Amino acid sequence: MTSSLTLSALHWLVPVLLFAAVAALVLTWSYRAAAGHPLRWVCLGLKALGLAALALCLLEPLWLGQRARPGANLFAVVADNSQGLQVRDRGESATRGEGLRQLVDATDSAWQGALATNFDVRRYLFDARLQATRDFSELTFEGRSTALASALKTLGDRFQGRPLAGAFLFTDGNATDLAGGVLPDLRGLPPIYPVVIGRAGAVKDIAVQQVAVTQTSFEDAPVSLQADVMATGFRGRPIKAQLVDRSGRVVQEQTADARGDGEAIAFRFQLKPEKPGLSFYQVRASTPTETPVPGAPTPPGEEATLANNARVVAVDRGQGPYRVLYVSGRPNWEFKFLNRAVQEDEQVQLVALIRIAKREPKFEFRGRAGETSNPLFRGFGQQAPEDVQRYDQPVLIRLNTRDEHELRAGFPRLPEDLYGYHAVILDDVEAEYFAPDQAQLLNKFVSERGGGLLMLGGMESFREGNYHRTPIGDALPVYLDLPEGGAEPPGPVNYQLAREGWLQAWARLNETEADERTRLEGMPKFEVFNRVRGLKPGASLIATVRDERGAELPALATQRFGRGRSAALMIGDIWLWGMRDAVKRVDADRAWRQMVRWLVSDVPARVQCTVEPIAADANGAVRVQVRVRDEKFQPVDEAAVLVEIEPVVFEGTTGAAGAAIKLEAEPALSEPGLYQVTYVPRQTGGYQAVATVKNNTGADLGRAEAGWSTDLAAEEFRSLSPNVALLEDIARKTGGQVVAAADLESFVKRLPELRAPVMETWSYPAWHTPLMFGFALACLLAEWGLRRWKGLP
Q1: What is the per-residue pLDDT for 300?
Q2: Which of 284, 343, 458, 542 could bond 501 through an S-S bridge, CB–CB 3.0 to 4.6 Å?
Q3: Is 201 buried (19+), middle (13-18) or exposed (0-12) by CB count in 10 A?
Q4: Contacts of range 134-141, beta carbons closer than 8 Å, 24 or more positions apart
Q5: Helix/strand/coil for 60
């Protein structure tokens, strides 16, 4: 509160000044006889002060100020009702929630009575949402989340345009709805006065902060999980982390010593799921002597809570079959080794189209009289003339086809025929093999459909196959135009990984660098190599070769091309690798499988299901999105999409399994072929969504699945130390201040003096008070007493 002193009777100013002048002359004249006495000026000053105080009363001085008008302003009291306040601080018999309940109990708190004297008090509690309460009797501290940002926004919207003077905020500050940990826009809010509940560093707890999943094409360990565990109060003690599958079986277990409070321990798990598709795992953390039971209401050991000791993670390895089309211009050894390697991967199907004879001009003298068919097929059954290869057609064989009609006409010419494959491998086949429309279709297969393309080296590949300035050459990650005389074969070359190749798991076969270098040194020298001018912008160099002169040349390059990816392997006799011995053959097979897996890993299916969390939603709501494409991979707008969502339950955990729910997805306005539905989970854990799609005639278009986890309890108990910094930031940005619980009563008494929307002016007569007259009388009596005491005239 700011106050000022003003004079309300200024019309007495001239008489008062005249009186002061006359009084000064009289006093000076009356003390002429006491000249030289040491108390002369003291007595003179005391009498002058007394007379000046009496003269000032004639001007009627008033104290003026402003204060909040009693009852005209609103004031909110907001209390946290989340599970996070069930924690008991070290050395305390009551939980944080019980302490909060005592603070806001209207029958037991003097500060609320003082607050209600000057303000219209409105009471609220919040967890996932803000709700009104009469007396905080609804505080149960069972809310699944602390939607602090949402509560503040709702509070501001609810009182927009109304005289809200401020709000007390009782919370520990551990919000679960801050996008990226950043506060939302706080403009329009009244001053917020946070009251911190709990003490920093007053609990012992182990919390799984987050779990990151990384999937690679590395055959031995295609999935990597990193769990960051925070151990508070366990410095130097061992912490155990377990990776558990849905059956409750411990897949892996690791132990590490806890660091200082606030320092996370990183546990890294590498595993290969036993089945393709969607899998769920749970990461649990505890001390070696504890057995964490996620969901247990009361911690059995030293920890403040077990609700944050586990997190569920979904791993989607994809589910085939992934169909790869292999096109070769001649029979060779490469297909034998590639086909044998891929046969060990149950999720990949390799379909081959191999030319065993090129197209030749038709000459009558080459065949028997009246014979129009290719002599290579003479004697093979009673074939109809229309089924027999002619002289002017290439001789092709098909292997591993789905039925007798697949690839019957050779390389596909229609999108619906080619787009059924996930990747295409070209091996030693020239550009003239493809008609212009086929070459353009293969380019669109990568750029628009999102497929994978791999070209292998050979006598008729890359520049030697005249792919320069063709649609297929445009899709490759390397330039094919070489200067005159630059295409000379380099001779025997040694294969080695480039810097980027060491970072790509699919390009390596061993976990350690030493083992990988040993493998590379044991690889044979390759004789067939296609030179290229260099890499295109944005391409990655995975491997190089070194010739006998020590020059390094690009050997394996990759790039993103439109929606898909392409790769170029300039070596044409990789099969030599598998011919050396049994160990090398195993390595070569693994290399082929990892390369093919990488080629098809991100290729979209006709029906795709993804889950997108709704940002900063305190209830963990997600948006299930389903993208539907037809055989030409064009969006399908008139489809019926049914999404079935089912919670995932882990054996050995508390809580009952929820029932599956079926929802109809609605078309999105932002993207053709996109259907979406919003789902709010009812419990913490993993969820599986299965989308079934039918067209407008009722025919099945396909199905897809996706999984996600909603760890509301783990997020709520992510940190048990009060987030004082966040609350101080809120107070500073809204013009409030952090108030200690012990200072509530004294602070409430000062609240009316602070700025409020509705203020009133008060005045207080400074002259009409006993203090003023007492001061004047004291000055005169003191002067009289001194004169009598010292004998002054």
Answers
A1: 46
A2: 542
A3: middle
A4: 135/106, 136/79, 136/101, 136/104, 136/105, 136/106, 138/81, 139/79, 139/81, 139/97, 139/100, 139/101, 139/104, 140/81, 141/81, 141/82, 141/83, 141/85, 141/86, 141/95, 141/97
A5: coil
Q: Could you give the count of Cα atoms lying within 13 Å of 508 in the half-sphere of its Cβ? A: 21
**What pLDDT score was predicted for residue 526?**
94
How far apart CA 353 and CA 328 sit, in angstroms, is: 6
Dihedral sign, CA of 259, 261, 263, 265?
Answer: positive
Closest Cα partner for 710 from 690, 689, 688, 684?
A: 684
Cβ atoms of residues 169 and 201 within 8 Å: no
- The full DSSP string for 142-170 is -BS---HHHHHHHHHHHTTTS-EEEEEEE
Whole-model pTM? 0.76
pLDDT under 70 in the chain at which residues?
1-3, 31-37, 40, 64-65, 106-108, 179-181, 202, 218-220, 290-301, 360-392, 484-487, 616, 654-657, 762-764, 766-767, 790-793
Tokens read off for 518: 């040993």
CB 283 within 8 A of CB 292: no
CA pair distance 419, 633, nearest whole angstrom: 7
Cβ–Cβ < 8 Å for 123, 136: yes
pLDDT for position 194: 96
State the amino acid at position 501 in one-letter form.
Answer: G
The total of other beta-carbon atoms located within 10 Å of residue 774's CB is: 11
Burial of 261 (0-12, 13-18, 19+ CB in 10 A): middle
